Every structure is written in structure tokens, then in C-alpha cells.
């Protein structure tokens, strides 16, 4: 394909009257010049002065969970904020389902109607199985009908909570894999989310779902081949997972979930990371508390860091942790978009002394930390432009500004989404030899981070047009 009349070749460069042409061959850019002649059989796409820039990459997302949201009821802020709204939404949703069908809900937070267990849910919807996921993603809550449908006997998993009498409460901590094997399979049609992402200029995802193995990888490859999923993928997976047979799918680090309730010992975590490194894989450590971050960095310092080792989230990081990350060469994958969707809650609940440590961006870059940004969807909003806007303004939906000293300019915010999947610190470019994962943006669009995002005219993945604006 020949792209003609590009007005700029990066997100930061101003639109120029001196146009240029870009030739794509296979999945790469092979030629750039002020004017290129069309080859026989070559398709031509006239950019008419529009910006041609590297596509955006979401460095931490959960694609299957995001696809399942369409079949789920949203039960948390900002959509639902009171017990009355919560009860009404549950009952209306239940009335729309056939008898015996599970009601699946997501995004719940206890600020809406308190802590939920089987008895609280029974009082609202006793007649059908109900499962509700907490907004953090770490907890599922089911009612008594749900417990009965799960047919739990002596095989209850460790994360199944019990009360003082030994009875199951209906709360399951970190038991997604166990529950998934016993629940009706949710259809994972990626076509809608993939098309929406392409319309926003997203050309790649890093799926951060833990414990992925050969069967999970094969499902993604099939979706790529069927073109229901159009973006390039890097998948976190366990050591020993077979390399996917697709040029658009690669394996990334192995994810390690750290949870304050079940934190491993220093030696246990060291052994786990060492085993991952010995298998030739890097480690991605899920750290959302200060304690988790300190443990993760202490162990990495002791066992050694290899290329690709990452901290996922780093929701609260002290300045001393940033210095350690920079010295060790550990990448930080952050989600500034949470400042928009959860900033009001952070402002109320996070102690004043910890607020400067929330979702660091500016200070991390100044400290020399390699930084990439992501959505963590469906637990965060999948729109990358919301994250870019949050990195610039640090402002919540309610108008609260959280950590204004961490703000960066628009060009820097966009760059957090244009690093390579395997090395977010290495910026992708519109240059000969680079992958043709590109976005075409309407001329005149400027001030990234000041609004909902630019008008995307077209998106290319591996040199193939995957989105064209109507």
C-alpha cells in the first residue's frame, strides 16, 4: 500500500505543508520520500495532509474479561452510587434473564452498598444464581443459588471465604481460574472491542491475564486469524508455554500476582522469579500497595533483573522505590486513567501522606524509570485518550486534582502509549524498517490530553487497514 500526502510523521511534529509519501510492504514501512510513484497493483491511500503516527499500545489489559463486560451488569461508580440504585439495577437485570440463567455483574465497590455476601444478595435476588465481581478484580461474590449451582463439596478452593461456623460466605478471593472451570463459558467475541480500539488508534495490546497456557494462547491466535481481533498482541504466559504460530502474537513476561492477604515470603518470591528467569522469561509483578512494591523490588535486587522485568500498576510508590527501579532497570506500567474514574474515591480514602505517591508519572520519568501506560480494562476505562488526559491534568470526574506535580505535557503522555510492547521505553517511529502499525489523524488536531482525543481517520496493523472512519 502507498500512503500519500502525509503532513507529519510523528505525534509531536507540527503539520507541515511539505508532504511526503510512505510505502508499506508486508508488515513494515519500506520507503519514505517526498514523492513516490505507485507500483503496479499497489493500493493508494491519500492522507491529504493528515498526521501519520505510530499506533497506540495498551501495555496492560484483560481482553477476555473486557469482552465479557458486554454480557454483564455494571454495579459500581459512577453508574451506580447508592444502595437503592444497586438493588434496582440487580432486580431489573434479573427480570430480563431466562429461568436458571446466571446473572453476571462487574465493577462493584463497597462504597455503593457495603460488603456483599450470599445473604445480602439473597435478600435482593434469591431466585437465580448471581455472581458479582469487585472493581479490583480480586473478589467474586455469589448468592446462595450460585453456591448451589457451583456444587461445592470438599473441593472448595483456598480462596473460598468461610464464616466463624465454617459455612461458605459466597465470597471467593483470587479464584478466577477455579470459578471459570465451573461456570457457564462466556462467549469471547472480540470484534466490537477491537473495532472500537482501532477507531481510537490502538494497534496493539499486552494481555495481562495471569496463568495463560497453550489453550488460552490458541484462542487468541484463532481470533487473529478470523480477524475478530485485529490488533497485535503480546501475551503474558507461564514458562513452558508454546510460542504462538502467528506473526501478530508474541509471548511476554510471566505475571506474578502479589496480594497483601497472601504475600509470599522473601525466599518464596525469590524462588519464583528465579525459576521464571531460568526459563528465559521476564517477570511482571502485580503491585498495588506500597508493601507489595517494596517486597517486589527487594527481591528483584537480590536475584537480579533481566530485560523485560516489570512492575504492573505501582499504584503507590515512594520516591525511594523510583530510585531503585531506575537503578535496576525495572519497567513501570502505570494506569493514570484511574485518576479520572476513581480519583474522587482516592481523594477521600487515601491518607494525605500517601497522595503524592499515587500513580506516579512525572517523577518516575525524572528519576529515569522506563514507563509505559495502560488501561487495565475492564477494571479501568479502555479509552487510551482518557489515560492521556489524566496524565496531563490529573483530574477526577468530580474535579479533584490528585498529585498535580506528577502531570506531564501532552506529547509525553502520548509517548507512554507508543513504546514497543517488549520494551516500552523504546519509542516506535514512522521510519523505514519499522512495523507498519500506524494511525492517521485529522489535520488540525492538537493539544493532546486536553479533550477526548483526536479524530482518527484510519488505523493500520501490520500494513493492513483495520479501520477507516465513516
- The number of helices is 16
Which term fits the overall shape?
globular
What name is given to the CATH topology of the largest domain? TIM Barrel
Structural class: alpha/beta
Widest β-sheet, arrangement of strands: 7-8-9-10-12-11
Number of strands: 23
Q: How does CATH name the architecture of the largest domain?
A: Alpha-Beta Barrel
Strand content: 15-25%
Give me the Rg, rounded. Answer: 23 Å
* Oligomer designation: single chain
Helix content: 25-40%
The residue ranges in which pLDDT falls below 50 over 5 or more consecutive positions are: none
CATH C-level class of the largest domain is: Alpha Beta
The main β sheet shows up as: 6 strands, mixed
Distance between the termini: 20 Å
The CATH fourth-level homologous superfamily of the largest domain: Metal-dependent hydrolases
Total of domains: 3
Q: Report the average pLDDT across residues.
A: 93
Walkthrough of the structure:
With 470 residues, the chain is an alpha/beta fold. The protein has three domains: 1-55 and 428-470, Urease, subunit C, domain 1 (Roll); 65-180, Diaminopimelate Epimerase, Chain A, domain 1 (Roll), CATH 3.10.310.70; 253-427, Metal-dependent hydrolases (TIM Barrel, Alpha-Beta Barrel), CATH 3.20.20.140. 28% of the residues lie in helices and 22% in strands. It has helices at 63-68, 83-95, 110-113, 118-122, 144-150, 176-180, 191-199, 214-225, 266-278, 290-303, 319-328, 338-341, 343-349, 362-366, 384-393, 410-415; strands at residues 2-6, 20-25, 28-33, 44-46, 51-54, 56-61, 73-74, 103-108, 130-134, 139-142, 160-162, 168-173, 202-207, 232-235, 249-251, 254-257, 283-287, 310-313, 331-334, 371-373, 438-441, 456-461, 464-468. The strands form five sheets. Strands 7-8-9-10-12-11 form a six-stranded mixed sheet. Helix 9 (266-278) packs across helix 10 and helix 10 (290-303) packs parallel to helix 11. The two termini are 20 Å apart.
Amino acid at each position: 500500500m502507498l500512503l500519500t500526502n502525509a503532513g507529519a510523521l510523528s505525534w509531536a511534529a507540527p503539520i507541515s505543508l511539505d508532504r511526503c509519501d510512505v510505502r508499506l510492504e508486508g508488515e513494515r514501512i519500506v520507503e519514505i520520500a517526498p514523492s513516490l510513484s505507485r507500483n503496479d497493483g499497489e493500493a493508494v491511500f491519500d492522507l491529504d495532509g493528515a498526521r501519520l503516527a505510530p499506533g497506540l499500545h495498551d501495555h496492560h489489559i484483560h481482553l477476555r474479561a473486557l469482552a465479557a463486560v458486554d454480557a454483564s451488569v455494571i454495579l459500581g461508580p459512577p453508574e451506580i452510587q447508592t444502595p437503592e440504585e444497586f438493588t434496582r439495577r440487580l432486580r431489573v437485570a434479573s427480570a430480563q434473564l431466562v429461568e436458571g440463567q446466571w446473572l453476571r455483574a462487574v465493577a462493584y465497590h463497597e462504597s455503593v452498598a457495603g460488603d456483599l455476601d450470599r445473604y445480602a444478595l439473597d435478600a435482593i435476588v434469591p431466585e437465580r444464581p448471581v455472581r458479582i465481581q469487585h472493581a479490583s478484580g480480586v473478589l467474586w461474590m455469589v448468592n446462595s443459588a450460585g453456591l448451589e449451582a457451583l456444587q461445592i463439596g470438599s473441593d472448595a478452593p483456598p480462596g473460598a471465604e468461610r464464616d466463624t461456623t465454617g459455612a461458605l460466605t459466597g465470597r471467593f478471593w483470587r479464584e478466577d481460574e477455579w470459578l471459570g472451570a465451573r461456570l457457564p463459558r462466556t462467549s469471547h467475541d472480540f470484534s466490537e472491542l477491537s473495532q472500537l480500539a482501532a477507531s481510537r488508534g490502538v494497534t496493539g495490546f499486552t494481555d495481562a491475564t495471569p496463568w495463560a497456557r497453550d489453550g488460552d494462547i490458541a484462542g487468541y491466535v484463532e481470533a487473529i486469524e478470523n480477524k475478530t481481533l485485529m490488533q497485535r498482541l503480546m501475551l503474558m504466559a507461564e514458562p513452558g508455554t508454546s510460542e504462538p504460530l502467528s506473526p501478530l502474537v508474541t509471548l511476554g513476561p510471566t505475571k506474578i500476582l502479589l496480594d497483601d492477604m497472601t504475600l509470599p515470603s522473601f525466599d518464596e518470591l525469590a524462588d519464583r522469579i528465579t525459576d521464571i528467569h531460568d526459563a528465559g522469561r521476564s517477570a511482571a509483578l502485580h503491585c498495588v500497595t506500597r508493601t507489595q512494591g517494596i517486597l517486589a523490588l527487594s527481591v528483584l535486587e537480590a536475584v537480579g533483573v533481566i530485560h523485560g522485568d516489570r512492575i504492573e500498576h505501582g499504584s503507590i510508590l515512594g520516591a525511594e522505590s523510583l530510585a531503585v527501579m531506575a537503578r535496576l532497570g525495572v519497567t513501570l506500567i502505570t494506569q493514570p486513567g484511574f485518576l479520572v474514574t476513581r480519583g474522587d474515591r482516592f481523594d477521600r480514602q487515601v491518607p494525605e501522606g500517601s497522595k503524592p505517591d499515587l500513580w506516579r508519572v512525572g517523577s518516575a520519568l525524572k528519576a529515569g524509570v522506563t514507563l509505559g501506560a495502560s488501561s487495565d480494562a475492564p477494571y479501568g476505562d479502555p479509552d487510551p485518550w482518557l489515560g492521556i488526559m489524566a496524565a496531563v491534568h490529573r483530574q477526577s470526574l468530580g474535579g479533584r486534582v490528585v498529585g498535580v506535580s506528577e502531570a506531564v505535557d501532552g506529547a509525553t503522555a502520548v509517548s507512554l502509549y507508543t513504546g514497543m510492547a517488549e520494551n516500552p521505553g523504546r519509542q516506535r517511529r514512522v521510519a523505514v524498517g519499522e512495523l507498519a502499525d500506524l494511525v492517521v489523524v485529522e489535520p488540525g488536531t492538537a493539544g493532546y490530553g486536553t479533550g477526548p482525543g483526536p479524530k482518527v481517520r484510519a488505523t493500520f496493523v501490520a500494513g493492513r487497514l483495520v479501520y477507516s472512519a465513516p
